[in-house]
Amino acid sequence: MPRTPSSPLHLAPVGMTPLVRLQRIPAGRGAEVHVKCEWMNPAGSVKDRPALWMIRDVEDRGLLDGSRTLLDSTSGNTGIALAQIAAARGHRVTLCMPANASPARKRLLELLGAELVLTDAQEGPDGARAIARRMAEQEPNRYLFLDQYSNPMNWRAHYEGTSLEIWDQTEGRITHFVAIMGTSGTFTGVSRRLKELNPRIERIAVQPDAAYHGIEGTKHYASTEVPPIFDSTLVSRQVEVSTEAAQEMARRLAREEGLPAGTSGGAAVVAALRVAENLDGGLIVAVLPDNVMKSIGEPTWDGKRP
C-alpha cells in the first residue's frame, strides 16, 4: 500500500528500505559493498519486520481477544517495534528487558505505553527471555508470549521480504550476504531465500568476538543460548568482530558516508570489508540493523566494554 501522509502506522509499509553503495570507504580490489539501511523502517530498525509479522500472525490466528497482553523479551529494538506497532493496533504489550538497557530506550518504550519488567543485567538477554517464559507459563490467560528467538515469523519476515528486496535491488548480482546475529532472524531468513535463488551466494554470519561486548542487540553464540530459529547449515563463513572495530567503523560510516549506523551495522561492514579484501569483483550486501540515535550516549561509545 502506498505511504500517504494520513496513513496510520499499522497501515504504513514496513520494508523497502534503501540499499546504498559505499563510496568513500575502500572495498579492496574491486568488489562493491552495499548496505541495507534498516533504520528507515517506521520504528527505526530491522526489527520492525519480524515485530509486524509476529503481531499479524497472532491476530490472524485469533489469539488476541482483548484480554491478553503481548509479551516478549528484548534488548531494545524488537521491544520498540512491538510497542509502536501494538500501540497503533490497539494492543497491550509487556517487555522483559535487562536492567542495564539505555535510559533512552526505556523512556521511549514507556512513552509508547509498554510495561517494562527489568531483569538481572548480568544474565543479559537470555535471562530476560527466561523471565518472560516463566511469566507466560504462570499466567497463560494473561500473557501471549511471542518469543522472537523461536518464533518462525521472525525469519519468515526476512525470507518473504528483506531477501527479495535485496535480490531486486541488486538485480540478482549479489555474490555475498553479510549479517550480524542476535536472534539470527535476519541472517536465517535472508540466507534461506538467497540460497534458493542462487546457491553460489556466500552467506557470512557475524558475531561479537567475546562474551562481554558492546555491540548492541547481538549475541556471542559460544557463551549464550543459541536461538532455536538459527540454521547453522546456511552459514558459508563466520566472522567475529571486536567492539572497538565495530565502533570505529560506525564512526567512519557516519563521517565518510553520511550513514549514522549503530555498532551492529559497523560490525557487519567490518566483516564485509574483510571478505572484500580477497575479491577481485563481486557485490557484497551488509545489513545495517539500526542507527546510532538510541545508543549514542551509552558508555560503550567511549570505547569501554560493559
Q: How would you describe this protein?
A:
The protein has 306 residues and is α/β, with parallel strands linked by helices. It has 2 domains: 9-42 and 155-302, Rossmann fold (3-Layer(aba) Sandwich); 48-145, Rossmann fold, CATH 3.40.50.1100. It has 8 helices and 10 strands. The protein has helices spanning 48-60, 77-89, 103-111, 124-138, 152-169, 185-197, 243-257, 263-276; strands at residues 19-21, 32-37, 69-73, 93-98, 115-119, 143-145, 176-180, 202-208, 237-241, 283-288. The strands form 2 sheets. The protein has a 6-stranded mixed beta sheet. A 4-stranded parallel beta sheet has the order 5-4-3-6, sandwiched between helices. The longest helix has 18 residues, at 152-169. The chain is globular, with a radius of gyration of 18 Å. The N and C termini lie far apart (42 Å). The model is unreliable at 1-7 (pLDDT under 50).
Order of helices and strands: EEHEHEHEHEHEHEEHHE
Task: Tell me the number of strands.
Answer: 10
Q: Identify the strand order in the major beta sheet.
A: 1-2-10-7-8-9
What summary fits the major beta sheet? 6 strands, mixed
CATH architecture of the largest domain: 3-Layer(aba) Sandwich
Please state roughly what percent of the residues sit in beta strands, choosing from under 5%, 5-15%, 15-25%, 25-35%, 35-45% or over 45%: 15-25%
Helix/strand/pairing category: alpha/beta
Give the CA-based shape. globular
Mean pLDDT: 91
Here the CATH topology of the largest domain equals: Rossmann fold
**Percent in helix:** 25-40%
Number of helices: 8
Total count of domains: 2
Radius of gyration: 18 Å
